[in-house]
């Protein structure tokens, strides 16, 4: 998939820079019991947490994110568009291969792609606990 963008994104970039100053931290509040390190479940920030940390600042600066499912052969994912009130936009699709061909796996992959795309288009990450672990510091 290729990058989608309007001819100009200058208004969008200015608005995003202002919005990012007001973003709240995207905290890893959820646990993944299926992935453990030293017998402790890993933590992650779900899509709702990411939206809650950023949406007010986006809206205050004339920005919205629109996402929808995409299918690319045997892969599914999400198209994420960052749209400014001027009509300028920037976006891309992120797809994942499916390990199993059923509805639950497909929806899980779309949800994962939405979260990844949301954070990526804003140029942000969730709090860094992996870096702390790698540095030998407690989480």
Distance between the termini: 36 Å
> How many strands?
6
Cα-based radius of gyration, to the nearest Å = 17 Å
- Average pLDDT reading: 88
Overall geometry comes to flat
Fraction in helix: 25-40%
DSSP helical segment count: 4
Category from helices, strands and their pairing:
alpha+beta
Low-pLDDT segments: 129-139
Strand arrangement within the widest β-sheet reads 1-6-5-4
**Biggest pleated sheet:** 4 strands, antiparallel
Question: Approximately what portion of the residues adopt beta-strand conformation?
Answer: 25-35%
Order of helices and strands: EHEEHEEEHH
Describe this structure in words.
The chain is α+β, with helices and mostly antiparallel strands and 139 residues long. Helix content is 37%, strand content 32%. The protein contains 4 helices and 6 strands; from the N terminus they run E-H-E-E-H-E-E-E-H-H. It has helices at 10-22, 47-60, 103-122, 130-134, and strands spanning 4-5, 30-37, 40-44, 63-72, 75-84, 89-97. The strands form 2 sheets. Strands 1-6-5-4 form a 4-stranded antiparallel β-sheet. The protein has a two-stranded antiparallel sheet with strand order 2-3. Strand 5 (75-84) and strand 6 form a beta hairpin. Helix 1 (10-22) packs across helix 2 (47-60). The model is unreliable at 129-139 (pLDDT under 50).
């Amino acid at each position: 998939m290729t990058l989608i963008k309007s001819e100009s994104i200058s208004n969008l970039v200015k608005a995003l820079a202002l919005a990012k100053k007001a973003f709240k931290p995207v905290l890893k509040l959820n646990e993944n019991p299926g992935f453990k390190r030293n017998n402790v479940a890993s933590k992650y920030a779900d899509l709702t947490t990411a939206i809650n940390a950023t949406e007010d600042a986006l809206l205050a600066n004339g920005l919205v994110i629109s996402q929808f499912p995409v299918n690319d052969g045997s892969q599914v994912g999400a198209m994420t568009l960052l749209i400014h009130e001027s009509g300028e936009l920037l976006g891309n699709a992120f797809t994942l291969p499916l390990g199993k061909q059923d509805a639950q796996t497909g929806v899980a992959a779309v949800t994962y792609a939405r979260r990844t795309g949301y954070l990526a288009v804003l140029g942000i990450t969730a709090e860094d606990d992996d870096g702390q672990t790698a540095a030998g510091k407690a989480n």
